[in-house]
Amino acid sequence: MNQFQTEGNRTYYLKIRRSEEFRVQAINETGNRIPPEVWKPYLYFLDKESFFGLTARIDGLDLLLTPAEFVRLFQREAHHYVSFSGQTPEDETWLNLAGKVADSLNDPKLWDHISVDGEDILIDSAYGDPEIQDFLSDTIKHQLRQKGLSTAQLPFIQHFVQQAGWDGLPASDDYVMAVQLGEPQDDAFWSFKVVLRSKRGSVYWTPSKRRMDEPFDKVLPEKWRNHQQEIKEKQMLILSLCPSVENYDEDRLYHAEWTDAEVLEFLRNDAEILQSFGIEVSIPSWLKAVQESKIRVKANIHSPVKKASVVGLDQIVRFDWQFSLNGHELSMQDFQQLVAENKEFIRIGNEWVRVDSNLLMQLRKMIEEADDADWTIKDMLFQNVPEIMLEEGADEEDPLIEFHLNRSLRTLLDKLLDKRDLPETPIPENLHTELRPYQKTGFDYLVFMREEGFGLCLADDMGLGKTVQLITYLLHVHAKKPEQPSLIICPTSVLGNWQKELERFGPDLKVVTHYGSARPKGEDFQAFLQNEKPDVVLSTYGIASSDAEEIQGVHWTSITLDEAQNIKNMYTKQSRTIRKFKGDHHIALTGTPIENRLSELWSIFDFINKGYLYRIKQFQENFMIPIERDDSEETKEKLRQRIQPFLLRRTKKDPDLQLNLPEKQEQLEYCPLTPEQAALYEGLVQDTVQKMETLTGFEKKGLVLKMLSKLKQLCNHPSLYLKEPYTSAAEILPRSQKLERIVTLAGEIAERGEQCLIFTQYIGMGHLLQQAINELYGHEVPFLTGSMPKNQRDSLVAAFQNGKFPIFILSLKAGGTGLNLTAATHVLHADRWWNPAVENQATDRAYRIGQTQFVHVHKFVTIGTIEEKIDALLTQKQTMSEQFIQSSQWMTELSDSELKELFTYNL
Fold it and tell me: Do 899 and 832 belong together in one domain?
């Protein structure tokens, strides 16, 4: 065992999960999970790289570690009185591997067995155990990321790391070695040298011009001559980091004359590598100042049409080009001459200016294409020119290209940006509902973007009807009988909801689900689609990822991702796989396009319009770093303007929508039973139906009520029915999609800064919700029950109203009346009370006088069970008097055949 343990030590047992990174939990000797804040200091107590744990990342009860961090932390001796051990043999194997990988990273022989293939680092089979090769490859990738380097740069540093290690060259007490780039004299060549300076000095030494070619032992000053072999070896290692440097004499200090192109290549690649290993790089101060200088292109854009009366992204535009460089105006002839000379650095007046000759050629090509071709607004949106979406005269510092639209084109573009005056699309006659005005706008937008060939993100707030807008769109699209079906990918917990909503609002659509162990695979999948000819295929994220080959074999009429934040982590296999799926139209539905980081927005846009937000590295440089690190308002606005045409976002607080929305919206949330629940459900029904046949009327009533309670608990979670204790969220949630959906929804509501009430009839269900929400989201969730003293009850109500906590669980009997909880904008009914008046009284804790916000009511129903059937009966019996449907007693009056049908589980 990997226990660095002495008598009297405290031991933490680690549960280790690995995907793209490691998630580590600690359990003490009594089996309790321990928050990372408690045990983290003992793990990091010697770790200078993380400032002794200051930069550690925590997610709930998980400590998040990259492979490189995992190896670094678990290769060394543990704390002198706290030890760490694997909870299981598999966890222990990971800990042992950390030591093996650490040994390999310090083994010079390793680098003779490494090669690079695209983004992959390959280690040949001749080196080490197969079990550590993948781990070792991932660790090296993270080592590169920590130094700001890419996998493609690994070949340039292999020799250096093999000889000097990842920490770089050992420091000398007497001198510092550096590389120096000297500016050209009289427009001639640049000079590039390896130079030395005293440890405490700032002036670089290099041999005089006439002695440059003499060997080390002749030219080195006396104070450094004893170090000549060391200096010679360090120079070889430094130059090994410079791909630009090829053949040279190893016995003398290196010097060379470089062209503009060679200097630019050094600045783009070599300098970054040298600095990542702590090598000093000296370049002229003016060169640092102009590294980002660009030629400025201004295009006055005109349209031959004086008035843009209708939206059309195919509107042809004309350009009037103007150029300037650092404030100096250039004619088209000057610009063409710059391109022809192919120089990187030029003098303008008394100053040096760097220009990117490659970029100049790209600009010339773009200008020629624009002049020769009939460019449209649509063409321009996908060029790397986000400034097109800036207002006329916006203050943008030195943009690459600045577009100025004339009034008619600005009006045209505004329609797209603001979603105003979109072409009207008739609502399909077979839609079984009415669209609100804002939903009609969403439908028109979906159709318009499809016709223009653009994907989009429909990011309306929860409860505004993204589902019905998409169903209307699907009815419109499939009325034309396309050859291929549309695909909807959603979380498992809402799969049943989609089935019901499609059946309710678009019954003419033929819908099939690709889910479950009996789903067709391989060639059978294609045959299934050909035979069934569905309009819509419903699947889940997990199935879509595991059945990627089948789904990638179809070019879908449309692909919709519901809860699209499920692909927010661009590095996961699920996200990478789903972003590769192909369809005529890509749509993302989400109420939260950004939950934590801008990379989540990039991932969604990479699915809907690949390439529009650039490659991820460029997106990081252009947007993520300025916004997330520097909080740049200017960059935020630039990003907002760039994504605006492809994102439709309405919230419940929008004044234009409030007039069209009800003050309260009730929505059924359908959840399927898990296989475990279904088996228990059928067993209980069969056993009880047999007993009913032998009982008198009074006894039968008692049995029905008892069974009703058991079935309702079973629909909530099998552990309530089986009377099992709580274990962990990871073990509890997969056993009930209803519980998982409630916990997830409550967590999302809290993360958006809103508050919600959760009503349940069962104390056990309340405790499951409490513990799972706390474990996953870190919220302390109070549970108001009938046994709670009045003072405590009043105190909790006041605290909730004052926003002290976002989620409040209430027993339906204890919290159903007499409370004012208008701070809540969501009410979640975990289990159904068969008297609608009782449910309404509970809902009215939030929806009452004093409530100024829209209230969204979610009623959770398990598909095919008594919950769904009772809900249908209550809907049918809405004309009954309230005196009749006062409780569940009315169900005992049903006949035996009606009861049997009521209780039977229908898949």
Answer: yes
Establish if 424 belongs to a structural domain: no
Task: Find, among 368, 399, 401, the residue nearest to 383 by Cα.
Answer: 401
CB 757 within 8 A of CB 876: no
Q: Are residues 153 and 174 in the same domain?
A: no
What is the DSSP secondary-structure string of 214-267? S-HHHHS-HHHHTTHHHHHHHHHHHHHT-TT-----TTS--EEEE-HHHHHHII
**369 φ/ψ angles, rounded to the nearest 5 degrees:** -65, -45
Same domain, 215 and 322: no
In a domain, 486, yes or no: yes
Exposed/middle/buried for 813, CB within 10 Å: 0-12, 13-18, 19+?
middle
Query: DSSP 3-state assignment of 115?
Result: strand
What are the pLDDT digits (tens) for 426-472? 999 999 999 988 899 999 999 988 987 889 999 887 767 899 999 99
CA distance 867 to 870: 5
Residue ending a domain, among 255, 283, 311, is 283
Q: Please indicate, yes or no, if residue 425 is contained in any of the structural domains.
A: no
Q: For the chain, which ranges sit under pLDDT 50?
A: 1-8, 291-292, 305-312, 384-399, 659-661, 877-889
Q: Token digits for 508?
A: 């003419």
- Closest listed residue to residue 755, CA positions, set 801, 816, 686: 801
CA gap 775, 765 in Å, rounded: 15
Longest dimension (CA), the chain: 118
Kindly state the tokens that stand for 565. 């934040």
Count the domains in the chain: 5
Per DSSP, helices labelled H in 457-516 are 466-478, 495-505
Give me the domain span that covers residue 196. Answer: 168-283
In contact, 433 and 469? CB cutoff 8 Å? no
Task: Assess contact for 701 and 524: CB atoms under 8 A.
Answer: no
For 675, the 3-state DSSP assignment is helix
Task: Say if strands 536-540 and 511-514 run parallel, antiparallel, or are unpaired.
Answer: parallel
Q: Do 641 and 785 belong together in one domain?
A: no
- Residue 30 and residue 123 share a domain: yes
Query: What predicted TM-score, i.e. pTM, was given to this entire model?
Result: 0.50
607/575 Cα distance (integer angstroms): 9
> What distance in Å separates the CA atoms of residue 399 and residue 293, rounded to the nearest whole number?
10
